[in-house]
Amino acid sequence: MEKKKQPIYTDHARDQMAYRRITEKEVEFCLNEPEIIRPGERNTLILTAHPNGRFIKIVVPKSKPRVIITAAD
């Protein structure tokens, strides 16, 4: 069984997660089970999902989708 790579969080992502009380588990849910994936600015993707019924979106680079640039609710 292949183990999933762990995400890498930028300092900005960590700051926003703390400010918005978004957990790593919620971010990883969005990363692994996105409901919607759409293009973002500057060659990024925006992934959205509803872990535990809460709307969460994360922004990742197209070239490195395991790097979390930011997270919001």
What is the structure about, briefly put?
The protein has 73 residues and is an alpha+beta fold.
Structure explained in plain terms:
The chain is of the alpha+beta class and 73 residues long. The chain has one domain. It has two helices and six strands, in the order βααβββββ. It has helices at residues 11-20, 24-32; strands at residues 8-9, 36-39, 44-49, 56-61, 67-68, 70-72. The strands form two sheets. Strands 2-3-4-6 form a four-stranded antiparallel beta sheet. Strands 1-5 form a two-stranded parallel sheet.
Keywords:
2 helices; 73 residues; alpha+beta; four-stranded antiparallel β-sheet; two-stranded parallel ribbon
Q: Which strand order spans the largest sheet, edge to edge or round the barrel? A: 2-3-4-6
Pattern of helices and strands? EHHEEEEE
Tally of discrete structural domains: 1
Distance between the termini: 33 Å
* Number of strand segments: 6
Radius of gyration computed on alpha carbons: 11 Å
Helicity level: 25-40%
Q: Provide mean pLDDT, rounded.
A: 92
